[in-house]
Automatic annotation (TrEMBL), chain A:
Protein name (database record): Transmembrane protein 50A
Keyword presence, Amino-acid biosynthesis: no
Keywords, sorted A to Z: Membrane, Transmembrane, Transmembrane helix
Lineage: Eukaryota, Viridiplantae, Chlorophyta, core chlorophytes, Chlorophyceae
Transmembrane stretches, start-end: 29-46, 58-77, 98-119, 134-155
From TrEMBL, chain B:
Native species: Chlamydomonas eustigma
Protein name: Vacuolar protein sorting 55
Domain of life: Eukaryota
Cell inner membrane in keyword set: no
InterPro entries: Vps55/LEPROT
Top-level taxonomy: Eukaryota, Viridiplantae, Chlorophyta, core chlorophytes, Chlorophyceae
Amino acid sequence: MLCPGTCYSAEYFISPALIQWWNENARRWGPIVSGVLFGAGWWFWADAIALSPHRVPFDQYLPGIIATLALVMINLIRKDELADIDPFDDASYCRARVWLFLSYVVSFASLVAAVWVMIQHYSSNPDFTPAEKWPGAAGIFQVSFILGSALLFFISRTPGNSSSYDGYGAF
Amino acid sequence: MFSSGILLQLLGCVLWQNWWPMLTGIMYILVPMPYIFFGAVGGDSGYSLYGSNLESGWIDAGKFLAGFSAVGSIAIPAILAHAQVITTGALIMELAAALVLGATCIVYDYFNSKDD
């Protein structure tokens, strides 16, 4: 195996039936479910904007926009670049890893921003009725749905790690 | 089945004398479009590794867009009901229409992949 150091096969942690179900269905339904989650995220936010009696300032749209940016970033990576490290290659493996790290940073930043917006503007604000606090909660739903969609799309896109190809999968 | 879905959708508008639910019709037009443009259902082009990366990338993007507009057909009636533009009964009828149309798609998909 070309796995460096200690490397655990997924069968040690997850039941093989689940892995087989995933292998059969992920490629067909994964992108569709991920699209559903992405749409659900943005529609939650649209609902909050449409129903809020106060004008929601633009900087509260930012967590959702940054989460969408994280979705694009995480899915720009080609999975076959992450498959194996080749010491004679042109560092495409390292580039892919660095980009993936950056996209994780951006996605966590958007999640933190959504929580921050909710706490600062909505839940600690004594003047709002509970119905008016919906944009805060909706922002968190939005960001978590979008990030979940990004992750699901990433892992269900091309043949994943649990395929049996030993690093010849790029052809 | 498809026509009964459309019928439910129209009834949701007519019975309550409120034509806002027709906005969902935009979503019903958008949903099949990624399938038409990217030609996607279950790639069977004979590649050994589930299609080349480039082509399967477009297919996945098409599925993503189809899922996105499918949830729009559920979300628009929900938002309209939340804003009390349409009544709860109309919401239930719209959701039933979305369910029937979704079931139509799944059944169509199943029968298509059985023929091959």
